[in-house]
Amino acid sequence: MIPGVTNLKTESNTSGGRNSVRIIAGTWRGRRVAFPDIPGLRPTPDRVRETLFNWLQHAVAGARCLDLFAGSGVLGLEALSRGAKELVFVEQAVAASRTLQEQLTRLGGLPKGRVMEMGAARFLRSPAQPFDIVFLDPPFGRGALAEYIPLLDAGQWLKEGALVYLENEKAEGVPPLPAHWELLKSKSAGEVGYHLVRINARASMNA
Fold first, then answer.
1. How far is CA 30 from the centre of its chain?
2. Is-contact 177 198, C-beta < 8 A?
3. In angstroms, rounded to a whole number, what is the distance separating the alpha carbons of residues 129 and 64?
4. Which residues pair with 64 in a beta bridge?
5. Calpha distance 190→96 (Å, rounded)
6. Helix 74-81, helix 94-107: angle, nearest 10
7. Confidence at residue 206, expressed as pLDDT on a 0 to 100 scale
């Protein structure tokens, strides 16, 4: 773990260009997104993003989205490019968050995109506003999904029917999910495991 960069994702950059990644589709199709040269910050591979947004293709337009461990911000930027109504990026590392702000300005992604320079746990302690789609891709090697799934579920962050994307190390398999989280899709690419879940209504206490 690198001090001060706890939100950085361990990802793979297969897009060409050591410090940039390509947006796959939408308004900004083909545009490249720069990110700082920080160890551990490697944007999600193109093929994983392409599969993810094929899963989400009917859900993104008009959606309110959260990229909780933004890093390069490419997942959230891809969603904005494809018609998301609002995107909140949460990133603690100063260099990464400020570069992401610059990319939003350059692409014309303001005011739909908003960067929160803070840690994910701190953000989840703030007053909740529910989201339609959440990207939850914490740093690898810490078992962080087991920590952040309950935090996300405990607040009023997720609308009924919301979709949550989870990314972790393939060897960890599907993380433990709350009873009302329904696993829809699960795949792997290289060492990356990635999963899509839907948030169903909680069971009634009187049922």
1. 20
2. no
3. 10
4. 86
5. 25
6. 20
7. 53
CA distance 47 to 88: 24
DSSP state of 30: T
Distance CA 103, CA 35 (A): 9
Residue ranges in the chain modelled with pLDDT below 50 = 1-6, 9-17, 207
DSSP state of 170: G
CA distance linking residue 156 with residue 34, whole number of Å = 33
β-strand pairing of 113-116 with 131-136: unpaired
Q: State the Cα–Cα distance between residues 193 and 59, nearest whole angstrom.
A: 21
Contacts of 122 (CB under 8 A, 6+ apart): none
Beta carbons of 150 and 180 less than 8 angstroms apart: no
* 168 contacts: CB under 8 Å, gap ≥ 6: 138, 140, 145, 175, 192, 193, 194
Full DSSP string of 28-60: TTT-EEE----TT--PPPHHHHHHHHHHTTTTS
All domains of the chain, ordered by start, with CATH?
20-199 (3.40.50.150)
Q: Is the peptide bond before 175 cis (omega within 30 degrees of 0)?
A: no
Listed in sequence order, the residues at least 6 apart from 178 whose beta carbon sits closer than 8 Å to its beta carbon are: 149, 150, 153
Per-residue model confidence as pLDDT tens digits over 10-42? 333 333 345 889 999 999 999 999 999 886 676
